[in-house]
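Predicting holo structure, zinc ion bound.
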Amino acid sequence: MRGNRRIDTKPELRVRSLLHKRGLRFRKDLAIRLPGLRVCPDIVFTRRKVAIFIDGCFWHRCPQHGNRPRANTEYWSRKLAHNVDRDKRVTVALRAEGWTVIRIWEHVPPEEAAALIEAGVRSAQR
Ligand SMILES: [Zn+2]
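Done. Tokens:
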């Protein structure tokens, strides 16, 4: 079971390569230390302080595709609720430290995701 979001998934790879083509330079696998929390966004623009998360539809409960599994309902609903809570805490904590946070569902077409990210990075302060 590959529940770990740190593993490069296809949508992430596509988005990263499109960002490169758009001339954007970023870091991946960079841990950001916040008070009481260690965060690993999928893409990080350090100078402009923009953190991008590409959230898996299942793991992060996308409203369109985040169906609950039929087996072990109790286990999964607790686990997924925990993920969603953590996502919220991470977003709030990053914003409190001056970060711009952009969360994109993995079902968003990579071209569209790259355009959203570029717009976010260009409008971020600094
Ligand atoms: Zn989805």
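DSSP finds three helices and five strands in the chain.
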